[in-house]
Amino acid sequence: MRRILLKISGEALGGPQGTGIQAEVIQSVAKQVKSVLGLGIQVGMVVGGGNIFRGVNGAQSGIRRVPADFMGMLATIINAVAVQNIFGESGVKAQVMTPFRLQEYVQLHNVDKALDYMTDGQVVLFAGGAGHPFFTTDPAAALRASEIEADLLIKATKVNGVYDRDPVKHADAVFYDELSFQKVLEDGLKIMDLSAIAMCLDSQIPIRVVNIFENDNILKICQGESVGTLIHQEA
Q1: How far is CA 153 from CA 3, 79, 138, 149, in A?
Q2: Residue 211's CATH number
Q3: Residues 22-59 pLDDT 10s
Q4: DSSP-derived pairing of the beta strands 162-163 and 175-176
Q5: Three-state SS for 220?
Q6: pLDDT band at 153, cuts 50/70/90?
Q7: What's the pLDDT score for residue 206?
Q8: What DSSP designation does 190 have?
């Protein structure tokens, strides 16, 4: 692989409880990313904000959807700045880019500049979602992966892959080693927003769904190991 896009949910950054920012989780990711960079693979990242604020939840509590989604996008920027700081302390240089002008702390999104940073061995943290309401960080990740022509989108979550139903509630849930984009779309499997699946299908970018809390899963994937669930054109 030449370049990957790593998508980490805000809940994953919040550790087992899914809230706040757990430094040890980010430190573990930083260690793996450092090793991935050592393999000569470029890394972009999209971080969620659900550990701080989710726009859809805010809309349900009485805040209008548009400002609620904007609050959610700001939450992803908070997370990205935290990741940038902890990555730096771990010896991984990172840049934060957002669709919004917050020039004191982050940079305005620019694909060419992002590619320059990644070519230089730095990680680019794409924060602020897609910059528009009504879009979660799933389609934002697919969009950024498409823009940087990533060879793989890794969705790092709190589960070890994709099942036909919730394995916590159903002991007989079936685990999928591989899935086609078409099956995910036809069956409406709740892996990522279907718009993100459709975009990855159009851009021909495969997706790996893995557990962020299992040791070195991100590194193992970049070393060619079969970890979690692979979603691609043919399965």
Answers
A1: 9, 19, 11, 10
A2: 3.40.1160.10
A3: 999 999 999 999 999 999 999 999 999 989 987 777 76
A4: antiparallel
A5: helix
A6: very high
A7: 97
A8: B
Cβ proximity of 79 and 13 under 8 Å: yes
Boundaries of domain holding 80: 3-232
Q: What is the pLDDT of residue 59?
A: 66
Other C-beta atoms within 10 Å of 170: how many? 11
The dihedral built from the CA positions of residue 140, 64, 72 and 156, taken in this order, carries a sign that is negative
- Provide the domain count of the chain: 1
Give whole-number Cα distances, 17 to 33, 77, 96, 188, in Å. 23, 20, 26, 27
Which pTM does this prediction carry? 0.92
Is 131 a residue whose pLDDT tops 70? yes
- Round the average pLDDT of the chain to a whole number and report it: 92
Q: What residue type is assigned to position 49 of the chain?
A: G
3-state secondary structure of 210: strand
Evaluate if residue 145 carries a pLDDT over 90.
yes
Structure tokens at 13: 């950054």
User: What's the angle, vertex CA 137, arms to CA 3 and CA 4, rounded to 5?
Assistant: 5
CB 140, CB 129: distance < 8 Å: yes
Pairing of strands 229-232, 207-211: antiparallel
- d(C-alpha 129, C-alpha 136), whole Å: 7
